[in-house]
DNA sequence: ACGGGACCTGACAA
DNA sequence: ATTGTCAGGTCCC
């Protein structure tokens, strides 16, 4: 540790249960589109640092990797105007090779790291990013107690939190999300970082860039370039919104739209990084969810749904309920929406009605609860639902067996029954349960015994219906009944 | 105000 | 293989 300054911190850990936070779900359920999982570790650039995470049952393990010129990077949002369409990695940078295959962009000017040991800063940042001050299990209980449907769906999807993300990044990411799928949204957000964001470092051979600021995306050629990159009609929205935010709104405009009860993301460097240059503009309107929602809708490509996503995940308004196709489906299927003659089709009035309903039954963090049901409804997570339910189902079968065995045990030991259950997954929706029973009967004289072996195979098909597992078939067939075997001692 | 299309693209199922 | 549908919607008429 002598000569070369390292910008990679050691792994640290934060005590945290999986019911309070499950990163495997939270980082994949369509809130952030930027986290990448490599060999059981999650990585993402936040505030100019590469944050790495892994989790076990008791702890969230984390480490931060930052370039020594991080201060400069986080302050320099502006000077990124791509002149070349194929601009990607700024090459003329010194890279420091680390032991574990980690490279970090390093400005040759300062070979001096400020805060390698400052991991409290990272911990504070993570508590803020994951909004850990709220007890998630307590909130789940509250939502479940006031809503039977939530109580039914949520047990298979614990640990889903709303991330406290950067507002600008959230805004752009969800402009990309319109009429789109998570896979492609992630690709698009990645392209934005790659082509317009500053290079931060390399982990396991993969390069990591930060998310570009509004100024970087406000150029006149951005729209055409983004179209070439496959953004489709969203290219115009992004360029327009970037221009508006960069030039037609006061500095710190987005920050002023935050929920005051949910403080802004803590600075990673332990303070001093954020430029406290705004805040002087007198904003007479008291910040509120409604006002924030209206202000965002003014932007290009931002309708009510995208606005609510930014309110919820980027600005700390927990009551914001983004109503998308999934939530609309849920509202119709589980909350009797669209049944009455009025709101059969989906209108703005319907949108507001759905949100109001969920705010009414779930309370001030309705958006958090929405995220749980949304995730449970995602196709990419349906296997998790069926898998969990199959487990529950097979557990129930085993309980039945145990009861039977207990009943037998009470009798004088005329026979001994041994049972075994084999559960095999046929598909994501169908599970085969084989029950093998061996009965050994003891008859006659002590010396002689009759052994009767019977094998019963029970096939239980579990069908996925409305995302709900039901036992569609419980057929018991005797495959083989062996003859009596007479043995002698 | 309300209803209906168009809109880029790519993955995935018939 | 081609075609159709769907994906965390928004804009415009």
Describe what you observe in this structure:
The chain has 489 residues and is an alpha+beta fold. Helices cover 36% and strands 20% of the residues. The protein is built from 16 helices and 15 strands. The strands form five sheets. The chain has a five-stranded antiparallel sheet with strand order 1-5-4-3-2, covered by helices on one side. Helix 6 crosses helix 7 and helix 14 crosses helix 15. The longest helix is centred in the C-terminal third of the chain and has 29 residues. The N terminus and C terminus are likely disordered. It binds a DNA duplex (14 and 13 nucleotides) through helix 7, helix 9, helix 12 and helix 13. GO terms for molecular function: 8-oxo-7,8-dihydroguanine DNA N-glycosylase activity; class I DNA-(apurinic or apyrimidinic site) endonuclease activity; damaged DNA binding. It comes from Lasiosphaeria miniovina. This is DNA-(apurinic or apyrimidinic site) lyase. Keywords: DNA damage, DNA repair, Glycosidase, Hydrolase, Lyase, Multifunctional enzyme, Nucleus. Its EC number is 4.2.99.18.
